[in-house]
């Protein structure tokens, strides 16, 4: 049986599928549009430089070496921009593990055994020098005291809190602040 929990959080959905839950989050947001424009500009400049160098017959070894890093950066920027328009993060939680997958474009995921999970918490990350640009993530504190990223890059703390709360609810984890859970000694 598939039921949709229909949360009031945009771009996040939760489905109960028998013995597990699936939480999905779309990547698309304002940052994707600005990143796409940056990728288009970057790659357009590279294409213009290469076309003019080829037309003038002025391609030297140093030019290829110098531009190689820029080409790799341009390809990575384009891939991230395309993934941002279409990808979604899928978090699968069952009694054995929490698995994070990204689709349709491949991206690094992660798996954490449920038996390792002591606590979940949300974390804010700053992406600017003046601290005005933030994203949010959900982290796991293991029974051995390790901090593991579960999901990151969420535009809203509401998204992170929703994901954390739904996983805690499904796994019957009592919510304790991260500071308290770190101060509790492990046997």
Summarize the structure.
By secondary structure, the protein is an alpha+beta fold. The chain is 40% helix and 32% strand.
Structural summary, described in words:
- It is a single chain.
- This protein is 40% helix and 32% strand.
- The protein is α+β, with helices and mostly antiparallel strands.
- The protein folds into 2 domains: 2-27 and 87-183, PH-domain like (Roll), CATH 2.30.29; 32-84, no CATH class.
- It has a 6-stranded antiparallel beta sheet. The protein has a 3-stranded antiparallel beta sheet with strand order 7-8-9.
- Helix 1 runs antiparallel to helix 2 (61-86).
- The chain is elongated, with a radius of gyration of 21 Å.
- Mean pLDDT is 83; it is low at 1-7 and 181-187.
Structural class by sheet pairing and helices: alpha+beta
What best-fitting shape do the alpha-carbon axes yield? elongated
Sheet having the most strands: 6 strands, antiparallel
Task: Write down how many β-strands occur, each being a DSSP E stretch of 2 or more residues.
Answer: 9
Order of helices and strands: EEEHHEEEEEEHH
CATH architectural label of the largest domain: Roll
Could you tell me the CATH topology label of the largest domain. Answer: PH-domain like
Overall radius of gyration: 21 Å
